[in-house]
Amino acid sequence: MAAEEQIIRMTLDQFDESMELSQFAFQFKRTPAELENIKYDFINEPSERWAMLINGQLAAQAVVLDLQTYIAGRPFRMGGVAGVATWPEYRRQGLVGKLLVHSLQEMKAKGQTLSFLAPFAFGFYRKFGWAAYTDIKTYTLQANQLPPRTSYPGKIERVSGYERVQTIYEAYASQYNGTLQRTPLWWERRISKRKPGQIALYRDEAGNGQGYIIYEVAKRELNIHEFVFLNEEARSALWSFVGQHDSMIERVIMRAPADDILTDLLPNPRIKQEVEPYFMGRVVDVEAFLKQYPFAAGGVDTIYLQVTDAHAPWNEAGFTLHIEENGEASVSRDSQIFKQEHALEIEIGDLSALMIGYRTTAQLSALNRIQGSKETMNRLHLRIPERTTYLPDFF
Question: Which residue, among 71, 106, 296, 285, has the nearest Cα to 181 in the 3D structure?
Fold first, then answer.
């Protein structure tokens, strides 16, 4: 007799079962107090929690967080996939794939045109249309390698709570692609847990906040969880502040965007740097996403796209993309795209990496991941705003 499969939206009735699977799959054990804390997030965090039942038993699960991400300075609704887990006896039966496809359908219905996730294996999620979208750079500096301390016109003060740094973060985050637009609940529940320690705020001469760091010191190591600055004055001041800890530390560790140029500030730039792929991203709804996308200003142009998407059939289509001078776009489906001599052919993962800003048309062309005329590729390239991708969060 065939097993009966059913996908349900989890409620508190499934909380204990869900936590049992999560603790097993991710190899952690929570105290009763910690479980109550997680239950608070289960109830209050905007999300959809999906479970695959086999003959009525929980076999696999996934969470889709309701988030917003910046693309070229504009916030987009994004479904953050997290907590994907399966009991061992149900693995390699395609259950997670079915949950992912179901989640994509639900994300589309909710208007979440993008989806991000932290992969346990890049190859696995690549099969379902997600692609690497951002790298993370990690610096390790010895105490004698820090930038020189300098004088600064403003003031650094230690603050408690996040109220005075939230607007600074949003101004900073909107300069990148793929950063989160953080809600007060995200600061309270996520940042406070993942980034413990001290908050140092830099205010300029006029008293306006221009930068901050969240950091902690332990075992003679200063770990910078978040280094945010809106101008060079703030960056220099904050590094001078870090330098004031030199007598109590041996090294500093900091994570930064892939394009960070800290080494240009150092007397000796030969420091340890590690760059590694971090999160994956996916366009959930090509038509809706391109309509919202803030293309770069330029002449009026029309570009034809043939998109392949094996797991989201609404994206498996030809699209006529018409871009106005101001960068606003209109998009229509076109079943005759194949007749267009200059149409570009691309799979959904590569389109996602391209439009989020992680890869260029030239890079994809060199890998044979986009087909079509070079002239059309160049035209599309010129209309995609240049932004570094970055995500200083985790979920």
Answer: 71
| Helix or strand holding residue 167 (H, E) | helix 166-173
Top CATH class, 280-383: alpha beta
Q: What are phi and psi of 388, to 5 degrees?
A: -75, 140
Hey, do 5-112 and 137-277 end up sharing a CATH topology, with the first three levels equal?
yes
> Crossing angle, helix 32-44 and helix 15-25, to 10 degrees?
110
Fold of the 137-277 domain: Aminopeptidase (3.40.630)
Dihedral (Cα; 16, 21, 27, 33), 10-degree rounding: -10
Q: Per-domain residue ranges for the chain?
A: 5-112, 137-277, 280-383
Under 8 Å between Cβ of 357 and 177: yes
Please give the torsion angle defined by the CA atoms of residues 152, 158, 160 and 165, in that order, rounded to the nearest 10 degrees.
Answer: 10
- Whole-model pTM? 0.95
pLDDT digits (tens, 9 = 90+) for 310-362: 999 999 999 999 999 999 999 999 888 767 778 999 999 999 999 999 999 99
Answer yes or no: are the C-beta atoms of 203 and 197 closer than 8 Å.
no
Q: How far apart are CA 161 and CA 91, in angstroms?
A: 43
Q: Name every residue whose Cβ is closer than 8 Å to that of residue 11 and which is 6 or more positions away in sequence.
A: none
- Please tell me the CATH superfamily of domain 5-112, with its number: Gcn5-related N-acetyltransferase (GNAT) (3.40.630.30)
Q: Contact, 134 vs 178, CB < 8 A?
A: yes
Query: For residue 138, how many C-alpha atoms fall within 13 Å in the half-sphere facing its CB?
Result: 9
* pLDDT, tens digit (0-9, with 9 covering 90-100), for 235-253: 999 999 999 999 999 999 9
